[in-house]
Every structure is written in C-alpha cells, then in structure tokens.
Amino acid sequence: AVARTPVEGQVRVQLPIITQSEE
User: Fold this and answer.
1) Of residues 13, 8, 3, the one with CA closest to residue 21
2) How much is the pLDDT for 13?
3) What angle do CA 23, 5, 11 make, to 5 degrees?
4) CA proximity to 9, closest of 22, 20, 17
5) pLDDT attached to residue 15
6) With helix as H, strand as E and coil as C, how does the chain read?
7) How far is CA 23 from CA 10, 14, 15, in A?
8) Could you give the CA distance from residue 15 to residue 2 in angstroms, rounded to a whole number?
9) For residues 23 and 11, what is the distance between their CA atoms, to the nearest angstrom?
10) How far apart, in Å, are the Cα atoms of 19 and each of 1, 2, 22?
11) From first to last of its 23 residues, what are the pLDDT tens digits of the chain?
12) Model pTM?
C-alpha cells in the first residue's frame, strides 16, 4: 500500500504535465 501511494502521486503529476505540453 505504501509503495502504491508514491506511484500514484508520480502518475498524477505526469498527467497534468502532459496536458500542458499538448496545449
């Protein structure tokens, strides 16, 4: 469970970054 927390955090941070790059 602890390992999943950091993984999800990184994925969520990358998602918004990719969206801004497309714009």
Assistant:
1) 13
2) 64
3) 20
4) 17
5) 64
6) CCCHHHHHHHHHHHHHHHHHHHC
7) 21, 14, 13
8) 21
9) 19
10) 28, 27, 5
11) 566 666 666 666 666 666 666 66
12) 0.17
Q: How far apart are CA 18 and CA 10, in angstroms?
A: 12
Q: Which tokens belong to 14?
A: 């990358």
State how far the Cα of 17 lies from the Cα of 23, in Å rounded to an integer. Answer: 10
Q: How many residues does the chain have?
A: 23
Tell me which residue has tokens 């497309």. 22
